[in-house]
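Q&A log
Question type: sequence-to-structure
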Amino acid sequence: MRLFKYEGYEVRVAPEALTLKPFKKLWDRDKSKTKDNALQELSFIYFYCDPRSDYQYIVDDEDRMEAVKEGEGLPSAWKPDKELQKAIDFYKSFDTASAVLLKSALIGVNKVRQQLEDADLNEVDDKGKPVISLKDYMAVLKMVPEVASMLKDAERAINDESEYGEAKGSIEKTLFDDGLDNI
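Response status: OK
Response body:
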């Protein structure tokens, strides 16, 4: 979803995001001139939900929520209220198939990582044979660079997919690329 973008150490909200009911409600209920609370809630949505967020490596939703709360300076007892939860669910509903697939892959990789960490190469069965053979363990370790590379490529593809409207590389924008209002 391209409604929020992290740029220059802040989350930027596209004007069209505020035309969508769940986000507009968050914006309108903040009566301050600066809209600091609304911006903090919309930033929370980006960091918690968006596949481009730096917090997406945390696959468990509760753990990610705690990390985002801490990173955004929210109190530890803070929880999303009903309106914010609706906006979160709405934002998540726009996940692309590739973003959902990447999340599933991260969950699987996290399970493999946990098994590697928990593996006891000294453990033996009742016959004295190793429960985990060194050969099998090393075979899994040899796959780590390939899996890491595939995940990195998938993350890059999702970032490219979500920014398809922007000029890339040596391509120069033409006069009308950003619309007539920029003339």
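Response note: The chain is about 50% helix and 5% strand.
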